[in-house]
Amino acid sequence: MYFQRGSLVNGPYPSSTPQTWDPVAVLGLYNHEKPGITCPGTAKRSGQRCRISPARHKVDHALGILRGLANNITTAKAAESPELCKAANILLCYCHISDVEGILCQWRCSLNNWDTKNDKKSACSATNAGGHSNIPPWENYAHKETYTLINQICSENNQRQKEMIDLLSAERLRMEEERKRTEERIRMDEQRRHEELLRIEEERKKYAEWVRIEDERRKKEEEELRRREEDQRIFAEWLRMEDQRIRIAEFMRAEDERRWKEEQKRQEEELMRKKEEQRRKEEEERRRKEEEDRKRREEEERIQKEKEEARRKEEEERRREEERKQKEENEARERAFRERVRLAREKAEREAKEKAEREAREWRSSWNRYARAWNSGFGMDPEGIVWPVKSGRRSDVNEANVKLFFSKAPPDWLVNTGEDRFKFINTENKRWHTDKVMQRFGSDVVHGPGREALNTVAMVMIELRREAQRNR
Length: 472
Hints:
Order of helices and strands: EEHEEHHHHHHHHHHH
Largest sheet: 2 strands, antiparallel
Strand content: under 5%
Helix content: over 70%
Low-confidence stretches: 1-16, 123-143
Distance between the termini: 52 Å
Shape: elongated
Number of strands: 4
Strand order of the largest sheet: 1-2
Number of helices: 12
């Protein structure tokens, strides 16, 4: 039984060289509280073993170093090897990296204790091929004690393996119970949804009945309103006819009164006409004299106007000439100004076009770097993660920069339509999911310095996916 890629394997070690000691068992790398190899550090608050699991490639690297020591040297020599410190630095998480000296002391003590326990076992290996021993006959008692110790060690190893298998079985039972609880919860949710649908259907029927009753009441009110309007129309027609009769009577009375007044007026006008005839003759004589005076004044005014008109025309001609010159100067200045504006506009458009092309090249380069890094496989180091911002650095990660990156950087063929953009954003959302990132780079990224940046990217991707789903 051994560990491969962070998993327990029941079988012989794959190495062709037999190991003299098991690194996982001797150094206590397996954490029974969280089945698997975790950080060997100890939590300061709880005093228990750290439950953070290193990345797979880190576990493989550290186990490769320790298995190399187990294949080549004894535990006493391994306790003094610098490779031991290297393996400890790889397995420790960022919270306990400062405890490397304490972990080395624990490992060295474990190696030395294991070496002391197995001294007698190595002494028993001196028996020759013929069944004769180099140990004198009087030391047979020592042989029995050695065999007893070996049997005890084997029993302890078998007991440890059995406990480990029991732990795995208990974990499987726990997962099965969790699955059953999940199915029961889903069933209860379905039942609640069904009851909610029935309740909604009942409310819909009640609402339809209420609407029907309201429609009948409204029709009755409209019928009553039409009846009242018809009564009002008949009453208004009667009032109109009565008013018309009164107006006709008043018109006849007014007509008689008008005829009498006209006769009185005609007599008065005849008298006034005679007086007016006398006054008109006097007025005509007066107007004749005034007309002669008026003609004389008009002639004088005409001569004066002709002189003023000639002077006005000269002034107008001079003013038009000045306006023409001023207009030509203004047009020349305006043409020069328009030319300067045109040159400035062309320069600004050229600079804007160059800036847009330069920015497009920068975004294209940023996308190529991002896609090349993520498509390179599982060999990328966690510190070398290319983040979804223009620079690719973790320090530039914020909500605005991530949104700008997915708006500017992706090629057009990935986001031509709403459906294409939704598929693209959905793929990126899965890529930046916390579980996917932990599976690829280990928990150091999720719980380490990159935790805030990863949370920001994950939240922005969820928001972009919802927006793309609405616009698909």
